[in-house]
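Morning!

This is the sequence you dropped in the shared folder:
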Amino acid sequence: MIEYLVPVLATTLAAATPLVFAGLGELVTEKSGVINLGVEGMMLIGAVAGFAGGLHWGVAGGLLCGALAGALAALPFAFLTLSLGTNQPATGLALTIFGIGLSAFVGQYFVSQSLPGLQPLIIPGLAEIPLLGPVFFSQSWVVYLSWLTFAWLAWMLARTRWGLILRAVGESPEAAHAIGYPVTAIRYAATCFGGAMAGIGGAYLSTVYTPLWVQNMTAGRGWIAVALVVFATWKPGRLMLGAYLFGGMTILQLHAQGLGVELPSQLLAAVPYVATIVVLVLISRDRKLLQLNLPASLGKPWIGN
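The structure's back. Tokens below.
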């Protein structure tokens, strides 16, 4: 049983990592009062840029290129929604469509190429712990980076002045502006940060998880990342739990196919997405919980300084 459980859990952490990055980025964006539905497009742009960077500068360079590309992709969205006051969901959908098309066009050059990937970073001593060691301490360094990013963001949002300002802007931009905070600049920064995180998530897919470029390789993960923010009720800890839940469902359906479960492969592949929808439906029934944590100005335009 343990021999089967260890690889499932270990691969679950790797499969969930792009969702952790993209979900945390969208959480910060929404905490500022901006809802960006372009995560899928930004992940794809980050994936193709990360693969191109990985060919020249390795995985670290690829992740940096993905972060930069994701942030740059978020800039037009920020300009249209924050400076011109366009509808945020519609503009986010346009960004996703643009990202799908741009990544497919740019990625044509990389279709036949691949990267060497990344070997696990085994932590001496801890990796020998039964069950926990092979699962938590024999991962790639990018997985460890996602944990550090989560810890930093959770601390920043809950314990620092910057986190308080971000939440204040998301709750009441009028009040934040009245006491002297540059609401638009803060929202620009949060939106670009969310784009950078989505770009890192996409670059992880193309440089580490499956070190090659495939058109539409995110396979809906950007939409799942947006859904996870709601599932988490805008709390980082719950978002991590949701990301690993989805990652686990993805890995289990792959193992089910390998074990010869007599169900159509298309149905098994849809299981993680169906599970996500079911969870979101159950969460949305608790309106009091959602209203308690929902940023009050989420999605509402605000034109000011």
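Headline: The domain at 2-293 is CATH 1.10.3470 (ABC transporter involved in vitamin B12 uptake, BtuC).

More detail when I'm at my desk.
O.
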